[in-house]
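DATA SHEET
Item: assembly model
Revision: 1
Owner: S.N.
Input lines:
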Amino acid sequence: MNNLTQRARMQPVLGVGTGIAAFASAAIVFLILIFLLVFAWPAIRFNGSGILTGVIWNIGNQYGSSTVTHNGVTAQAGASFGGLVFVFGTIATSALAMVIAVPLSFLVAVALVYRVPRKLQPLANTLVELMAGVPSVVYGLWGIVVLVPWVGNQLGPFAQAHLSWVPLVRGETGSGNGLLAAGIILALMVLPIMVATLRDVILAQPPTIFEASMALGSTTWQAVTRAVFPSVRKGFLAAVLVALGRALGETMAVLMVCGAAINQFPSNIFQAVNTIAAVIVSQLDSALTDASGMAQRSLAELALVLFLITLVVNVVARLTLRGADRSAQ
Amino acid sequence: MRHQRISRLASRAWWSVSVLALAGVLVVLFGIFWFVAVRGVPALRPALFTTVTSGVAGGLENAIAGTLLLVGAGLVLVTLVGIGTAIWIVEYAPPRAQDVSRFLIDVLAGVPSIVVGYFLYVVLVEGLGWGFSLVAGAFALTIVMLPYVVRSSDLALSGVPQALREGAFALGARRATVLFGVAIPWAIPGMLTGLLVATGIGLGETAPLIYTAGWSNFMPSLAPTHSPVGYLTYVVWTFISQPFPQAHALAYAAAALLMIFIFLTNLVSRSAVEYWSARSRRG
Amino acid sequence: MLQAPDREDQPLMYVTTTKNAPEPSVATKLQIERLSVFYGSFQAIRDASLEVPENCVMSLIGPSGCGKSTFIRAVNRMHDLSPDVRVEGKVLLDGANIYAPGVDPVTIRHRIGMVFQRPNPFPKTVFENVVYGPRIHGIGNRKKLMEIAERSLRHAALWDEVKDRLDKSALDLSGGQQQRMCIARVLAVEPEVILMDEPASALDPIATSKIEDLIGELQRFYTVVIVTHSMQQAARISDYTAFFLMGELIEIGTTTEVFTKPKDKRTEDYITGRYG
């Protein structure tokens, strides 16, 4: 009995304690937003729209004592914080990744569900899980040592020789570090999310949809693409958006293979790019040398831009998923 | 009919393409495993575990200790906060607050980990002046792991059969008694799986640590602040870009260790789930 | 007014009617010879043989688990979709074995349509549901598809109820309407035989009686084989009735014979309600 009364006394404590935990968890998103905004505020005033439209990223002259003041905010002379190259790179690498990963994940998922013998399915599911668990630096390591040389030495020259009529392929192909390598790595990294989701939503469908199509004289492929897929489209779309959010924010693997372009746009898919996430990491050292602190604040502004982009993508994903749940009822 | 023959051929062709796609992805996946194994395992000398990194050579003792310390500290925090959050959401929250907190946790899951890292850099490392430190790094991992732990614990607790709760309440049990006596024991496998998944994620994270834990060539000092901590993923990232074979060997060794840790976590989580579900089936 | 389905655009059949087939007064549409179905090592159907004359309705009755659903799924080769199921014996459609080597099950399912126990609309519009089959078979012309949709829906006695909401989701129809739409979807493919697996078991009495009326109409143009758990239903709608028990075909005859003077003791026991 003593035990019970003790537990009863714990009850309000438990409610309050877990309440605080929940409040803290829920508040993190807002804290991130507020603190980044406050910290970046001087940079937002200094850069104006330049953070989204400017091409040149230059923290200014560190050795002179001269400064430049804009909108009442001071930075090192010659400083310019244009983030367009990074915004472009973020969107381009993710878009390329989705172009590769969306059809690939569809093909892989339907092969998993309909072509892998039932006995091997647990093994296949474990592999998908493991693929999702490979750390991003390991993908990056493989990218640097295997993928980039392959793109630079095999795929690039091949494309130059035979595919020069394709607009985004034509031109200098370089070392292999660049948009294509980043897109391929990102595609591999987000593939398991989409495959696992599509597999789950297909398996959650009653088999009658597949059978109904077969009974109308369709081929199995038609049954999958025209009857089963339309009924899981929303769930898949939500997974695609979650994967896109992941790709937009992925840092290490992209950083390791993107070529870290600054102040220039790629003219084809082989050339160097940079993403917001990657530039935040790669610019840390130089930002710390900026005595005015404006470089650090501008990186915070970039982080804010990335936060907002992924926020929109993820909120749309949640709403889609909610819509999918509703239409499934 | 001609059209049917075309459909039949198309069906066969597409199925072949899809099986080839699956095979291709598996080849790449095994290629990555093979690559890490072939390059990393030979680099795993015993000395790695007993010497610290010096410059671009030396061992990984500091990084291994740092990784375990950061993930361990993160796990302690995320267990308290994450499971606490899930308990509140399922047991105490009014329906509207339930929806809102679940939504916010989902949104947090989508926040890029580098943004989390930079946020903590601004607030803890710079703002509070803690410098690169164990606590800042552990906080970063906590935030990154939190959504997984909350979601899995939430699912596990919500899945406790209503009849079970009602049965306990009908015997005159109080809420806390039902929670600790009935709901949590029932939900433990799910919570444990969530924690293990989070461990895997924590082990593999880099981006949020660069700005919070920093890097150190020395063994972690256990000082909560003002003392940077090294970790394995950092070694993989930086040492592969150095032009020295010793540095490369360290990067491969670190990658192999990470993969081994993650495989083990995965293995443990599977056997734990099997053990617990077998146990609960026996009743 | 019902119109006879237009057979002009019927695809070339893989199998053609055999010339030597005997010519009884009513042609045999389906002839099943010594059919056995195995799930792994379990034999669900033992050596069942029966004939279904053209343009008639045959009911398959029997207690649940007796194998009647398994039986009709063998008639349009639906079992091909399950790797663990093995079918032995012959199913002759117009005298040609649909299990003969080289016969494409897709062509067979085109000629032998199937309606399932629960309505299974695709999550598409009513229109897209009905023209699913024709689209699959390569008809893309919207006007032509519209004609097919109207004809099939009229034929399924559903046109008047849905003609104003062809572009609405089929999931918004009532259960009975959904099932009639699924029948229309089968009719749009212009099959020769329609198999129905307890098509009214998930429906209320009014919707059930509509489906029963519809089956009576369909009989004029199609051969219908229907599995039912309701003996009253079998008596109301069918010309012939076959009784299955534990995977065996016990008795087959005209519905009147089977219900009024069954030859087998077990049939009599079932009819009089001595089985569950």
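QC remark: Chain A touches chain B through 85 residues (CB under 8 Å).
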